[in-house]
Amino acid sequence: MTNGCCCCGCGKKEEGVTLKNLIAAYNGESNASAKYAVYSEKAKSEGYLGLAALFAAASKAETLHAARHARVIKALGGEAVAEIATYEGKSIEEMLKDAIAGETEEFTHMYPGFIADAEKEGQAAAIASFKGALEAEVVHARLYTEALENTEAWKAERAFYVCSICGWTEEGQAPEKCPICGVSAEKFLKF
After folding, report:
1. What is the pLDDT of residues 70-113, one digit of tens each?
2. Confidence (pTM)
3. In 3-state terms, what secondary structure has residue 27?
4. What is the distance between the alpha carbons of residues 95 and 50, in angstroms, rounded to a whole number?
5. What are residue 184's phi and psi, to 5 degrees?
6. d(C-alpha 181, C-alpha 133), whole Å
7. Radius of gyration of the chain from Cα atoms?
8. Under DSSP, is residue 160 helix (H, G, I), strand (E, B) or coil?
9. Directed axis angle between helix 124-149 and helix 49-75, to 10°?
10. Up-side HSE of residue 29: CA atoms within 13 Å toward CB?
11. How buried is 185 (Cβ within 10 angstroms: 0-12 exposed, 13-18 middle, 19+ buried)?
């Protein structure tokens, strides 16, 4: 077998499915960040300060997931490029339902499939990046679901902490150690 293309030996590097998945995940996380930033402003303008903080924290977490995916993309010889859509704030209920649907899709279907593909290709860095994002998305979906179940309670201010390394999100106070990457509480960003 020759280096390069799998079929003709031309020397061109074939793009594996893991790299394609990383690029898709990068685009998705970048768009989620942009959307949640808009949702945060909309929630704030309607007096839902706790929800605005949650959307802002989740926006930052999605940016961190995208950055981690981008580092792996670069290491695999690819380029991280996102096409950012235009978003507008909807009703509070619509924004929460949209966020729950997106996060749930990521942790139930998208990331498990991406992890399986990366495992087949032996891409440890991609597996770690996908798993870290998946675990954080579970938390986001849970928090959005809690907000949807009692939106009025989310008018009060709330504090959220985001791990600056992996994007884990915690309400109330930062954990002593990040459950995903293990960094200490002082590495968390407050929203």
Report:
1. 999 999 999 999 999 999 989 999 999 999 999 999 999 999 99
2. 0.90
3. helix
4. 14
5. -80, 165
6. 11
7. 18
8. strand
9. 170
10. 32
11. middle
